[in-house]
Amino acid sequence: MTAPVYQVFVYGSLRSGFRNPAYRYLSDFFSLIGEAKVKGRFYDKGTYPVAIPTEDAFIIGELYAANSVDAFQWAIAQLDDYEGLIVEAGETPLYKRSLVEVYHQDQTTTAWIYWFNGDTTGLPVIPTGDLLEYIQSKNHSK
After folding, report:
1. Radius of gyration of the chain from Cα atoms?
2. Each residue of 15-56: pLDDT tens digit?
3. What distances in angstroms separate CA 127 from CA 35, 51, 73, 123, 132, one per listed residue?
4. Residues 83, 10: contact at Cβ < 8 Å?
5. pLDDT of 142 higher than 70
């Protein structure tokens, strides 16, 4: 039997640098472990970034651990709602939550991640794999 996972990896608007209102669920119920990366590819969808798993690129983000195992299910349900996993009958969820191997410092661990659940064909790739860096470079080039 596999042990339950009480960690979350975030790479977009839930990173601490964005201070998104939904970040409160992370800051109230999870503790920042630090910057980390996962195998995946980032795309610029215009109003928000999307990511899909891949073996040949990395996404930079943050790793969080739950403060309380008892509150984890409630907190992750709030994040599921924010990420569009909870939809009406007949609708397709915008993201899917999956377990992923996370690289943090010189170790690996397992955490939950929200992968895009749509088509990325034709979307511009975010080559650095780091959304904060990408946004800063776009703002400086204006």
Report:
1. 15
2. 887 777 777 778 889 999 999 999 999 998 888 889 999 999
3. 18, 12, 34, 12, 12
4. no
5. no
Higher pLDDT, 15 or 61: 61
What φ, ψ does residue 63 adopt, rounded to 5°?
Answer: -105, 130
Q: What is the per-residue DSSP string for the chain? A: -PPP--EEEE-STTSTTT--TTHHHHHHHEEEEEEEEEE-EEEE-SSSEEEE--SS-EEEEEEEEES-HHHHHHHHHHHHHHTT-S--TTPPPSEEEEEEEEEETTEEEEEEEEEE-S--TTPPB-TTS-HHHHHHHHHHT-
**CA 53, CA 61: separation in Å to the nearest integer?**
14
Decide: 43 and 124 in contact? Cβ < 8 Å. yes
Rounded to whole angstroms, the Cα distance separating 122 from 120 reads 6
